[in-house]
Amino acid sequence: xxxxxxxxxxxxxxxxxxxxxxxxxxxxxxxxxxxxxxxxxxxxxxxxxxxxxxxxxxxxxxxxxxxxxxxxxxxxxxxxxxxxxxxxxxxxxxxxxxxxxxxxxxxxxxxxxxxxxxxxxxxxxxxxxxxxxxxxxxxxxxxxxxxxxxxxxxxxxxxxxxxxxxxxxxxxxxxxxxxxxxxxxxxxxxxxxxxxxxxxxxxxxxxxxxxxxxxxxxxxxxxxxxxxxxxxxxxxxxxxxxxxxxxxxxxxxxxxxxxxxxxxxxxxxxxxxxxxxxxxxxxxxxxxxxxxxxxxxxxxxxxxxxxxxxxxxxxxxxxx
Length: 320
Ligand SMILES: NC(=O)c1ccc[n+]([C@@H]2O[C@H](COP(=O)([O-])OP(=O)(O)OC[C@H]3O[C@@H](n4cnc5c(N)ncnc54)[C@H](OP(=O)(O)O)[C@@H]3O)[C@@H](O)[C@H]2O)c1
Hints:
By secondary structure, this protein is α/β, with parallel strands linked by helices. The protein is built from nine helices and 16 strands. It has two domains: 3-130 and 288-318, Alpha-Beta Complex (Quinone Oxidoreductase, Chain A, domain 1), CATH 3.90.180; 134-264, Rossmann fold (3-Layer(aba) Sandwich), CATH 3.40.50.720. 23% of the residues lie in helices and 28% in strands. It is globular, with a radius of gyration of 19 Å. The site of NADP nicotinamide-adenine-dinucleotide phosphate has 31 residues, from helix 1, helix 3, helix 4 and strand 10.
């Protein structure tokens, strides 16, 4: 069997569970594409899976390749598969199925419906930073896959985006501005100027005082932090406003008592949305922020950085 280099875990655990090793090169089935991975985006879900936080929802088989953000080229198509119009050698990107082996590897299998053509103006490293975070922002703010609900953000509305400097936040700010909303973003002191440059109309330095003392009557809160930040967010909403979270489902009872709406999104692959995101990138309406690029072998260092919770934009692993 042909082998490839991959970063896998053989059991849940700390960063020491990540092993850079030889693994069997997978073969595509019907409707699937073998992608030669050029770069893999790093997301908090990678270390959450590694630590076993998703084991109630996902039945993983070990060894497991982590990483669910990919940019690469089509390396193999199953004979007789239409593969949604993709051809050998096409440059593609996507956020593949979380229940299967991921992108921390030289090759991975992706369903054709989970991929879109890579934005022509981005190299693979920048493209790998896009799908998961940008799709999450899109689905939370505009249009969620069933059974989830989005905030349905409208032009002219005001949205408070928590953790504006994070992977999801950097896309959320830009997408909300593109939609014509007024954006308030939270960040620590070192990110205040950065968030303004990204397009935020107002920035709240959460390290200098409670955000709820500085924002009020907003239409939408986008909660990307959870816990106490989510609990304190109800008070800044106007009547009938929406608190949408990607960390934990806000309480429906609390929403009712606050005359507000609760929404939760768990991002799903979506080729149409990803194609639109690629179009916005190529049109110059959306930029990609990368804090650091590391070689695949240094996945453990990337996890340590991500877990610390203060990455600006994205971390990317270079594979090819
Ligand atoms: N449900 C879903 O489908 C889904 C999808 C994607 C992500 N997520 C989850 O959403 C969360 C965010 O993801 P991400 O990729 O954006 O994470 P990330 O890139 O790791 O976020 C890091 C950013 O968070 C900011 N931050 C940390 N604590 C903050 C606070 N108390 N208030 C405001 N900003 C704060 C930091 O800015 P400072 O340095 O300025 O503090 C940093 O820039 C994670 O828990 C992730 O697992 C869920």
